[in-house]
Write a structure and sequence with these properties.
Structural class: mainly alpha
Order of helices and strands: HHHH
Distance between the termini: 54 Å
Oligomer: single chain
Number of helices: 4
Number of domains: 1
Shape: flat
Radius of gyration: 19 Å
CATH class: Mainly Alpha
CATH architecture: Orthogonal Bundle
């Protein structure tokens, strides 16, 4: 197993950076094991995800998340006087 093979799950989940995604896609062209594993994951997981009902986003959720993120960033960096 090549080092790049370890990126398979992150690639499937869409959590790789653009550069790592591109590198993994190049790796897929030469690694039959990863191509087969990716196909299995898609065949098993995507129908499950597609069968889940859509749930509405709770009111105010985006504002609360952004408030937490932005509030944390402000608290982490000292304000200049």
């Amino acid at each position: 197993m090549e080092e790049r093979c370890h990126d398979l799950i992150n690639y499937f989940n869409g959590t790789l950076s653009a550069a790592d995604r591109d590198a993994f896609e190049a790796h897929l062209s030469t690694c039959e094991e990863c191509r087969e594993s990716l196909l299995e994951m898609e065949e098993l997981m995507l129908p499950i995800a597609e069968s889940l009902p859509e749930r509405p986003v709770p009111a105010g959720m985006k504002a609360r998340i952004l408030g937490e993120v932005l509030g944390s960033e402000e608290a982490a960096s000292p304000k200049e006087a």
